[in-house]
Amino acid sequence: MSAPLTLVSHALCPYVQRVAIVLVEKGVAFERRNIDLAHKPSWFLAMSPLGKTPVLQVGGQAVFESAVICEYLDDTHGPRLHPADALERALHRGWMEFGSALLNTIGQFYSAPDEAAPQARAGDIRGRLQQLDATLGPGPYFAGERFSLVDAVFAPVFRYFEVFDTIDDFGFFAGLPGLVRWRAALAARPSVQGAVVADYPARLRAFLLARGSALSARMAAEAAQG
Ligand SMILES: N[C@@H](CCC(=O)N[C@@H](CS)C(=O)NCC(=O)O)C(=O)O
After folding, report:
1. In sequence order, which residues have a C-beta less than 8 Å from that of residue 207 and are 6 or more positions away?
2. For atom 12 of ligand 1, which residue has the closest CA?
3. CATH number of the domain encompassing residue 117
4. Nearest CA to ligand 1 atom 16
């Protein structure tokens, strides 16, 4: 029997979540080892060339970069989550990259220091969501009936909006019913639900509140108003 895989994780990391989702979709047993990214342990720095989570420990090797880990798991464990056709697969890889770009935009949104900047970044997010909506077919998933790696990438992206929606109505999903349906289908998937700890929303709120950003200030003002 091969040694169990270890996923080196951080509780809030969306890149870790995509790997956890793929592992569960494939029924692969794994251990999760959480670290504090503010105080990276020396064993982690020794194994992780970029000092980032996720890392998947496979035997004595440390596989890093979430998209690479997902592809490795797809090459080694069924069922296949990538399309069989090379062109379709290339298109899916492009949308996975788009998902990473959207995560960067979301990070800029919640970290922006002054009030004008989050409004501008919210516009960027909205623009990307509109682009995404325009590519969607009938669903329920990105490529139809079959759950794919693209779904594993966007499920953690959409999870941010569960908390953003409690802060204000930013109108991110207004007039995008295909995206709303896709988001709901992903949120209902057991692999997606199990990719985070039960108190994830509270932890994410605490993280956002502590950013010292314009969004943090808005959250604090709302909390003070009761
Ligand atoms: N491109 C990387 C991004 C991973 C990443 O940014 N991880 C964050 C946590 S969500 C991290 O480890 N940050 C720590 C740091 O940059 O020092 C991937 O897809 O795995």
Report:
1. 12
2. 52
3. 1.20.1050.10
4. 52
Assessment of whether the complete model's pTM goes beyond 0.85 = yes
Number of domains in the chain: 2
In this prediction, residues 22-48 reach a mean pLDDT of 97
**pLDDT bucket at 3, cuts 50 / 70 / 90:** low
Q: Is residue 155 part of a domain?
A: yes
53, 69, 111: which to mutate for ligand 1, most atoms within 8 A of CB? Answer: 53
Omega prior to 140 cis, within 30 of 0: yes
Residues near ligand 1 (Cβ within 6 A) = 10, 13, 15, 37, 51-54, 65-67
Expressed as residue numbers, the domain containing 119 is 86-225
123 Cβ contact partners less than 8 Å away, ≥ 6 residues apart? none
Token digits for 106?
Answer: 């979301």
Mutate to test the pocket of ligand 1, among 17, 52, 103, 159 (most ligand atoms within 8 A of CB): 52
**What's the rounded Cα separation, in Å, for the pair 119 and 112?**
9
**Measured from the CA of 64, which atom of ligand 1 is nearest?**
20
